[in-house]
Amino acid sequence: MLKIFYKKKLERKLSEIRPRLYRLAISWCSDAMLADDLVQETLNKALLKHSQLKDFDLLNSWVFKILHNCWMQHLRSKKPSLDIDNIELLSNHSPEKQLSEMHIVDRVRKAVEMLPLNQRQVITLVDLEDNSYQQVSEILDIPIGTVMSRLSRARNQLKNRLIGVSIEQHSKTTPKTNQNTNRHLQRLV
Amino acid sequence: MDSNNSTDKTNSKKQAMLNALADSQLPAHEREEILSLIDKDAELGGDLCEIYRIKDLIKTAYPLEDFSGKKYTGIFSKYANTIKIASYLLAFVFTLGTGYYIGNGKNQVKQENLTSTNAPLQKNKMIVFLSSSEPAKLTQALYKAETLAQQYQASNGEVYVVTSAEGIDLLNTKTTPFEQKIMDLSHQYPSLQFIACNNTLYQQKKAGNNIDLIADAKVVPSAVDFVAKHLKKGWQYIAI
């Protein structure tokens, strides 16, 4: 009986955490379908291995660690390939490209994509998920000092790549986001 | 050579501390140490603002998506996308065969949210946001805040007047005509608070305008972050 309650609770919690897993996955792999697959696989493993979770308060870190392992496994199994559609020509000054660059979301995502993977994972775990340095260290299995140095390098690179970009620009150029929240962003800066 | 190395080390230590400060990861004594350094060095304050800007940008670039309409496909996870594509193909073939259009609503554009959840609306929690220094708007902001504080008094509600950009003039002793009024309101309504944005304070300082805030004003690192966090918790918002 207790097991059933435990499993129900776990399923509910996993369902709640799913959007956050997806956001993290897409920030790491930049591919919506792959992110969806990684999240599904993570949830699946979490359900199968639930007995490994000793403390329910550590659920988030535990699930993020599973996501990290799934992502690493995917990278290891992936054959080297190059999709020609993803190659960006340096001399491309097409109106489409210029328009795309005006969008802050695109610009920030591109800047994040250009970070080395290990820095990308640290900065997204801290800035998107508000994980502590200790939690990130446990999720990625690296020392805290490495977390701090990767974070510092990642932020420096983003700072240089995103000079002049502010949320004000976002509010002027991207009408897609939630209207209520966007309204305050427009007024804020 | 050695002095260059030691300067680099000191700078990278300061940067690490700034990052840790922005991420609320510093113990109290180190927090005090870096805050006193920031007080003396405007450039460090600027670096801190930059870190907050990057954090805000990343949060904005990766909004949480609404998964309420999506089902977890359990053991079929590995084949989720294949199954999805196959079912679309099947539906398409079926549509061609019968001539009927099925699947209304499948193509609805997914709403992009900045909020993590649809937090329940807090009917007695309000942010009055001011970004203009027009005298009429300053008056209006104070009038709104006072009226709301009065209304919410009985239900233990809260009102924050958040100022940013030119709106900071409301809380600047050198420019506000309402210093006494704000002090009176703060004492009369403990749940009414006046907030200034540190990013704006820094920008003003950089431009040579040192702002002297009234005693009852509180400073938050980023007004954007502050308002967004409260909206996520279900607070309401009025822009003046």
Topology of this protein?
The complex is a heterodimer of chains A (189) and B (240).
Chain A: H1 2-29, H2 32-48, H3 59-77, H4 95-102, H5 104-113, H6 117-127, H7 133-140, H8 144-161, H9 167-173, H10 179-188
Chain B: H1 2-22, H2 28-40, H3 42-61, H4 80-98, E1 125-130, H5 135-152, E2 158-163, H6 179-188, E3 192-197, H7 198-206, E4 217-220, H8 223-232, E5 236-239
Parallel strand pairs in B: 1-2, 1-5, 2-3, 3-4
Helix pairs in contact in B: 1-3, 2-3, 3-7
Describe this structure in words.
The complex is a heterodimer of chains A (189) and B (240). The model of chain A is unreliable at 82-94 and 168-189 (pLDDT under 50). Chain A has ten helices and no strands. Chain A is 72% helix and 0% strand. In chain A, helix 7 (133-140) packs across helix 8. Chain A is globular and about 55 Å long. Chain A folds into two domains: 2-77, RNA polymerase sigma factor, region 2, helix turn helix motif (Rna Polymerase Sigma Factor, Chain: A), CATH 1.10.1740.10; 96-188, Arc Repressor Mutant, subunit A (Orthogonal Bundle). Chain B is of the alpha/beta class. Chain B is 50% helix and 11% strand. Chain B contains eight helices and five strands. Chain B has a five-stranded parallel beta sheet, sandwiched between helices. Chain B is globular, with a radius of gyration of 25 Å. The model of chain B is unreliable at 94-117 (pLDDT under 50). The chains are: A mainly alpha (189), B alpha/beta (240). At the A-B interface, helix 1, helix 2, helix 5, helix 6 and helix 8 of A face helix 1, helix 3 and helix 8 of B.
